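Please check both lines for our workbook:

___
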Amino acid sequence: DASFLLFGCSGDACARHKLWKRKRRQNSRKEEKTHRAERRANAPEGTEEIVWQPISQLPLIGSMIDEMYKDDQDQHALYLEASEKPHVLDDATVNRAIRLYDERLDMIVTVFGPQLELWKAEELTPPQRQEVERLLGELADLRALDEKIMALLKEIMKETIDAVMRKSDFELGFETLYGKVPLTDKQQALAQKIDTWVKGIEARGGGDEQILQGMYDYMTTFKQIMDNSSKVQMDKLCAQYPGFDRFASLLNALARGIADGAIDVP
Protein backbone atom coordinates (compact mmCIF):
# COMPACT_ATOMS: atom_id res chain seq x y z
CA ASP A 1 0.00 0.00 0.00
CA ALA A 2 0.96 3.71 0.03
CA SER A 3 2.46 3.51 3.55
CA PHE A 4 4.81 0.77 2.31
CA LEU A 5 6.05 2.95 -0.53
CA LEU A 6 6.45 6.09 1.62
CA PHE A 7 7.64 4.80 4.97
CA GLY A 8 9.09 1.35 4.35
CA CYS A 9 7.75 -1.94 5.68
CA SER A 10 7.88 -4.38 8.51
CA GLY A 11 7.86 -8.14 9.02
CA ASP A 12 8.09 -10.65 6.16
CA ALA A 13 7.33 -8.06 3.48
CA CYS A 14 10.26 -5.93 4.58
CA ALA A 15 12.59 -8.94 4.71
CA ARG A 16 11.57 -9.97 1.19
CA HIS A 17 12.14 -6.41 -0.02
CA LYS A 18 15.65 -6.27 1.50
CA LEU A 19 16.53 -9.66 0.02
CA TRP A 20 15.37 -8.48 -3.41
CA LYS A 21 17.49 -5.32 -3.15
CA ARG A 22 20.55 -7.35 -2.10
CA LYS A 23 20.19 -9.76 -5.04
CA ARG A 24 19.73 -6.81 -7.40
CA ARG A 25 22.99 -5.23 -6.18
CA GLN A 26 24.79 -8.57 -6.52
CA ASN A 27 23.53 -9.04 -10.06
CA SER A 28 24.54 -5.47 -10.91
CA ARG A 29 28.05 -6.07 -9.58
CA LYS A 30 28.29 -9.33 -11.54
CA GLU A 31 27.24 -7.55 -14.72
CA GLU A 32 29.81 -4.77 -14.19
CA LYS A 33 32.52 -7.34 -13.40
CA THR A 34 31.68 -9.23 -16.58
CA HIS A 35 31.73 -5.97 -18.57
CA ARG A 36 35.15 -5.02 -17.14
CA ALA A 37 36.49 -8.48 -18.00
CA GLU A 38 35.25 -8.10 -21.57
CA ARG A 39 36.90 -4.67 -21.86
CA ARG A 40 40.19 -6.07 -20.53
CA ALA A 41 39.99 -8.97 -23.00
CA ASN A 42 39.48 -6.56 -25.91
CA ALA A 43 42.12 -4.10 -24.71
CA PRO A 44 45.35 -3.67 -26.72
CA GLU A 45 48.37 -5.52 -25.32
CA GLY A 46 50.31 -3.65 -22.64
CA THR A 47 47.39 -1.41 -21.57
CA GLU A 48 45.99 -3.48 -18.70
CA GLU A 49 46.57 -0.70 -16.14
CA ILE A 50 44.37 1.86 -17.92
CA VAL A 51 41.07 2.74 -16.27
CA TRP A 52 38.87 2.00 -19.26
CA GLN A 53 35.93 4.31 -19.86
CA PRO A 54 32.49 3.31 -21.15
CA ILE A 55 31.35 4.63 -24.51
CA SER A 56 29.09 7.08 -22.65
CA GLN A 57 32.30 9.05 -21.96
CA LEU A 58 32.96 9.57 -25.68
CA PRO A 59 31.71 13.21 -25.69
CA LEU A 60 33.97 14.05 -22.73
CA ILE A 61 37.06 12.37 -24.24
CA GLY A 62 36.29 14.00 -27.59
CA SER A 63 36.08 17.47 -26.07
CA MET A 64 39.38 16.93 -24.24
CA ILE A 65 41.18 15.91 -27.44
CA ASP A 66 39.63 18.79 -29.41
CA GLU A 67 40.68 21.31 -26.76
CA MET A 68 44.24 19.93 -26.59
CA TYR A 69 44.58 20.11 -30.37
CA LYS A 70 43.32 23.70 -30.52
CA ASP A 71 45.54 24.73 -27.60
CA ASP A 72 48.63 23.10 -29.12
CA GLN A 73 48.04 24.75 -32.49
CA ASP A 74 48.07 28.13 -30.71
CA GLN A 75 51.15 27.16 -28.67
CA HIS A 76 53.01 25.99 -31.77
CA ALA A 77 52.52 29.40 -33.37
CA LEU A 78 53.82 31.10 -30.22
CA TYR A 79 56.89 28.85 -30.01
CA LEU A 80 57.66 29.47 -33.68
CA GLU A 81 57.64 33.18 -32.91
CA ALA A 82 59.80 32.63 -29.81
CA SER A 83 62.33 30.63 -31.86
CA GLU A 84 63.24 33.88 -33.64
CA LYS A 85 64.30 35.42 -30.30
CA PRO A 86 64.90 32.50 -27.92
CA HIS A 87 66.99 34.64 -25.58
CA VAL A 88 63.78 36.12 -24.14
CA LEU A 89 63.11 32.73 -22.49
CA ASP A 90 65.02 31.08 -19.64
CA ASP A 91 65.87 27.42 -19.02
CA ALA A 92 63.18 26.96 -16.36
CA THR A 93 60.37 28.15 -18.64
CA VAL A 94 61.44 25.94 -21.55
CA ASN A 95 62.03 22.94 -19.28
CA ARG A 96 58.48 23.26 -17.90
CA ALA A 97 57.11 23.28 -21.45
CA ILE A 98 59.20 20.24 -22.39
CA ARG A 99 57.88 18.32 -19.36
CA LEU A 100 54.31 19.29 -20.26
CA TYR A 101 54.56 18.06 -23.83
CA ASP A 102 56.47 14.96 -22.79
CA GLU A 103 53.55 14.08 -20.48
CA ARG A 104 51.03 14.97 -23.17
CA LEU A 105 52.72 12.72 -25.73
CA ASP A 106 52.74 9.94 -23.15
CA MET A 107 48.99 10.37 -22.58
CA ILE A 108 48.33 10.25 -26.32
CA VAL A 109 50.23 6.98 -26.66
CA THR A 110 49.24 5.23 -23.44
CA VAL A 111 45.74 6.55 -22.64
CA PHE A 112 43.78 8.28 -25.40
CA GLY A 113 45.01 6.11 -28.26
CA PRO A 114 44.31 2.75 -26.58
CA GLN A 115 40.92 3.96 -25.31
CA LEU A 116 39.80 4.98 -28.80
CA GLU A 117 41.10 1.73 -30.30
CA LEU A 118 39.17 -0.21 -27.66
CA TRP A 119 35.95 1.62 -28.49
CA LYS A 120 36.61 1.07 -32.18
CA ALA A 121 36.57 -2.70 -31.56
CA GLU A 122 33.19 -2.53 -29.77
CA GLU A 123 29.69 -2.52 -31.24
CA LEU A 124 28.89 1.15 -31.83
CA THR A 125 26.10 3.18 -33.35
CA PRO A 126 27.02 4.80 -36.70
CA PRO A 127 27.40 8.29 -35.11
CA GLN A 128 29.60 6.86 -32.35
CA ARG A 129 31.81 5.04 -34.86
CA GLN A 130 32.11 8.18 -36.98
CA GLU A 131 33.19 10.19 -33.94
CA VAL A 132 35.73 7.58 -32.83
CA GLU A 133 37.25 7.52 -36.32
CA ARG A 134 37.41 11.32 -36.37
CA LEU A 135 39.13 11.42 -33.00
CA LEU A 136 41.67 8.78 -34.03
CA GLY A 137 42.63 10.94 -37.00
CA GLU A 138 42.81 14.07 -34.89
CA LEU A 139 44.88 12.24 -32.28
CA ALA A 140 47.44 11.29 -34.94
CA ASP A 141 47.62 14.95 -36.01
CA LEU A 142 47.94 16.02 -32.37
CA ARG A 143 50.81 13.61 -31.79
CA ALA A 144 52.66 14.89 -34.88
CA LEU A 145 52.09 18.48 -33.77
CA ASP A 146 53.34 17.82 -30.23
CA GLU A 147 56.46 16.12 -31.61
CA LYS A 148 57.12 19.26 -33.67
CA ILE A 149 56.68 21.40 -30.56
CA MET A 150 59.09 19.19 -28.61
CA ALA A 151 61.72 19.50 -31.36
CA LEU A 152 61.20 23.25 -31.45
CA LEU A 153 61.54 23.56 -27.67
CA LYS A 154 64.80 21.59 -27.72
CA GLU A 155 66.18 24.00 -30.32
CA ILE A 156 65.01 27.00 -28.28
CA MET A 157 66.73 25.51 -25.21
CA LYS A 158 70.10 25.92 -26.95
CA GLU A 159 69.65 29.70 -27.16
CA THR A 160 67.84 30.70 -23.95
CA ILE A 161 69.22 33.60 -21.93
CA ASP A 162 70.82 31.05 -19.58
CA ALA A 163 72.45 29.24 -22.51
CA VAL A 164 73.81 32.53 -23.86
CA MET A 165 75.29 33.38 -20.45
CA ARG A 166 77.11 30.03 -20.38
CA LYS A 167 78.87 30.62 -23.72
CA SER A 168 82.47 31.78 -24.05
CA ASP A 169 83.46 35.05 -25.73
CA PHE A 170 84.70 33.06 -28.75
CA GLU A 171 81.37 31.25 -29.13
CA LEU A 172 79.42 34.50 -28.88
CA GLY A 173 81.70 36.20 -31.40
CA PHE A 174 81.46 33.26 -33.80
CA GLU A 175 77.67 33.26 -33.65
CA THR A 176 77.55 37.03 -34.10
CA LEU A 177 79.60 36.75 -37.29
CA TYR A 178 78.27 33.48 -38.73
CA GLY A 179 75.16 32.50 -36.77
CA LYS A 180 72.77 33.26 -39.62
CA VAL A 181 74.93 31.71 -42.36
CA PRO A 182 73.41 28.33 -43.33
CA LEU A 183 75.61 25.30 -43.93
CA THR A 184 74.40 22.06 -45.48
CA ASP A 185 75.09 18.68 -43.91
CA LYS A 186 77.22 17.81 -46.95
CA GLN A 187 79.38 20.94 -46.61
CA GLN A 188 80.01 20.21 -42.95
CA ALA A 189 80.70 16.51 -43.53
CA LEU A 190 83.28 17.24 -46.27
CA ALA A 191 84.99 19.98 -44.23
CA GLN A 192 85.06 17.72 -41.19
CA LYS A 193 86.73 14.98 -43.25
CA ILE A 194 89.65 17.30 -44.10
CA ASP A 195 89.66 18.72 -40.57
CA THR A 196 89.99 15.26 -39.03
CA TRP A 197 92.83 14.33 -41.37
CA VAL A 198 94.81 17.50 -40.58
CA LYS A 199 94.26 17.11 -36.85
CA GLY A 200 95.54 13.53 -37.12
CA ILE A 201 98.80 14.79 -38.63
CA GLU A 202 99.07 17.43 -35.89
CA ALA A 203 98.44 14.83 -33.17
CA ARG A 204 101.38 12.79 -34.52
CA GLY A 205 103.67 15.82 -34.37
CA GLY A 206 103.49 16.63 -38.09
CA GLY A 207 103.24 20.08 -39.64
CA ASP A 208 102.85 21.92 -42.94
CA GLU A 209 105.28 19.65 -44.78
CA GLN A 210 103.33 16.49 -43.95
CA ILE A 211 100.04 18.19 -44.83
CA LEU A 212 101.40 19.34 -48.19
CA GLN A 213 102.71 15.86 -48.94
CA GLY A 214 99.30 14.24 -48.41
CA MET A 215 97.17 17.12 -49.66
CA TYR A 216 96.60 15.64 -53.11
CA ASP A 217 94.35 12.87 -51.74
CA TYR A 218 91.94 15.52 -50.38
CA MET A 219 91.93 17.94 -53.32
CA THR A 220 88.74 16.44 -54.79
CA THR A 221 86.99 16.84 -51.45
CA PHE A 222 88.16 20.44 -51.14
CA LYS A 223 87.03 21.23 -54.70
CA GLN A 224 83.56 19.87 -53.93
CA ILE A 225 83.32 22.30 -51.04
CA MET A 226 84.62 25.22 -53.12
CA ASP A 227 82.18 24.53 -55.95
CA ASN A 228 79.16 24.47 -53.63
CA SER A 229 79.98 27.20 -51.10
CA SER A 230 79.86 30.98 -51.07
CA LYS A 231 82.75 33.01 -49.65
CA VAL A 232 80.83 33.60 -46.42
CA GLN A 233 80.14 29.88 -46.09
CA MET A 234 83.83 29.11 -46.65
CA ASP A 235 84.71 31.64 -43.95
CA LYS A 236 82.31 29.97 -41.54
CA LEU A 237 83.69 26.49 -42.30
CA CYS A 238 87.23 27.76 -41.69
CA ALA A 239 86.17 29.33 -38.39
CA GLN A 240 84.34 26.18 -37.34
CA TYR A 241 87.01 23.64 -38.37
CA PRO A 242 90.61 24.71 -37.54
CA GLY A 243 92.13 21.77 -39.43
CA PHE A 244 90.15 22.65 -42.54
CA ASP A 245 91.24 26.27 -42.15
CA ARG A 246 94.92 25.22 -42.06
CA PHE A 247 94.44 23.09 -45.17
CA ALA A 248 92.77 25.98 -47.03
CA SER A 249 95.44 28.47 -45.91
CA LEU A 250 98.27 26.20 -47.10
CA LEU A 251 96.53 25.62 -50.41
CA ASN A 252 95.99 29.36 -50.84
CA ALA A 253 99.66 30.06 -50.07
CA LEU A 254 100.68 27.35 -52.53
CA ALA A 255 98.49 28.87 -55.26
CA ARG A 256 99.93 32.37 -54.62
CA GLY A 257 103.48 31.02 -54.74
CA ILE A 258 102.84 29.35 -58.09
CA ALA A 259 101.22 32.51 -59.48
CA ASP A 260 104.09 34.72 -58.29
CA GLY A 261 106.71 32.34 -59.64
CA ALA A 262 108.13 31.72 -56.20
CA ILE A 263 107.28 28.03 -56.56
CA ASP A 264 108.44 26.21 -59.68
CA VAL A 265 105.90 23.90 -61.28
CA PRO A 266 107.43 21.05 -63.31
